[in-house]
Peptide chain release factor 3
Amino acid sequence: MSLEQEIAKRRTFGIISHPDAGKTTLTEKLLLFGGAIQKAGAVKSSKIKDHARSDWMEIEKQRGISVATSVMGFNYEDVKINLLDTPGHQDFAEDTYRTLTAVDSVIMVIDCVKGVEIQTEKLMEVCRMRSTPVICFINKLDREGRDPFELLDEIEEKLSIKVRPLSWPISMGKTFKGVYSLYEKSLHLFTPSKTTVEEGIEVKDITDSLVDDYVGESNARQLRADIELIEGVYPDFDVNEYLNGRVAPVFFGSAVNNFGVKELLDAFIRLAPQPVPRETSVRIVEPEEKKFSGFIFKIHANMDPKHRNRIAFLRICSGKFERGNNYFHVRQDKSLRFSNATAFMAQDRETVEEAWPGDIVGIFDTGNLKIGDTLTEGEKLMYTGIPSFSPEIFKEVVNMDAMKTKQLEKGLLQLMEEGVAQLFTYELGKRKVVGVVGALQFEVIQFRLKNEYNATVQFVPQNIYKACWISSKNPQKLAEFIESKQRHIARDKDDKLVFMAESRGWLQMVQDNFPDIEFHFTSEF
Ligand code: G4P
């Protein structure tokens, strides 16, 4: 098969949702359709359950298990699908943000009872930054949920994206009858706990009396009124608008009942983009380019202190990756040999001989790679778009064992490279402050520093509201600002200047007082 054909048959995507909306269940059903797993329940082990919320060891263990399910490759019809898993636990949200940089599109799951929840809003923000195409799946229609029109309005409002329903529910909860596919003009009837999926019933159009026969007169009347409203209110579905991240097609279903999932998957393989061109520091790289290039978006450490190797996840962006070849590590300006690469197929890992744009390859690494690194066949370019977001909780790292300073430095550096947390070093006094999204990370860091690097630390809470990356078109003004706010200026891991704001009000005041300074909430601007 040619490079172009390999690219055309690939779809690399992620599923995002607020915890409990049904991401794991949907993942599992998709894998069942792809024949990648044989029975339900196989994916559950990767799920971090509520009861483990305060037990991070348990979470890490589960994260360990979930390496296998981090990337699930499977074939459906003639399409090679790469599904990238994202951690459900919000304390690991940064992991999810980064994973979203490696996908070409996203399926967003929304619980029809709860509507748009906070985690979905945050994840959608990341999608919007990159104009990632989003398909929306409204789940749990077997429950008494909110009015579908109301849900669509909420998505548009809270997620700032236009929607276009491509299927429509007929009633809900106990009286849920099924969905009408506006996309295929067919009726799909719901039977609870169905494990196999029958083809939809084709109808001429919505006026077909078959509709009344199958769902009853009153439901049919309501459906016709709803469809009329949809056709009147929403413009026709335009696939380019979807591909540009401006419109999200919406499907309804019930993942646990395997209902609406096949329709979703069928539409997905037809609509979702094949691997797309990507921006680098110097130019846009097309997947069809003959020369290989890719970037590292995730690093998973081995919890065993005796084996400090880790798995780096490489997204292939152009050309063909071949095991055993030497590739150019742009940041380190040197050539590396990759003899130990694995592909991810559902829950198994297997040695990979070659991989194509859209594929994810796991590379065993002993410390050469970090998140954001680019590999090429020699060209000096760096993939962009792997931003750090301002953390939400900040604590100063205090070294409790002066004899182990070196180990601490090394440990901190490596954990930061894995993306466990962000480190800010103050200009004055070189104080080190760690920032995280979820409080659990502090326990993880403390434990791992002790366990893997034999360094003992304590954390002292800091009164910091946000870390803002700063810049200015006027170097003189920037220097003046740094001078006047010296005590609050730090550097991030890449030596970028950061202003550590103590409160929202104070930040606002500082912004007003220094109009020449730009304050950014992500490291890429
Ligand atoms: P998540 O990965 O997004 O966190 O959600 P997950 O799939 O684990 O689903 C959360 C809960 O919602 C699960 O119940 C799951 O069975 C249920 N669920 C998923 N899809 C549907 C649906 O279409 N209808 C209904 N009624 N429920 C659905 P649980 O009790 O937390 O777990 P379990 O004991 O069933 O495994």
Summary: The two ends are 40 Å apart (CA to CA). Residues 217-233 form the longest helix (17 residues). The chain has three domains: 13-68+104-271, 278-376, 393-520.
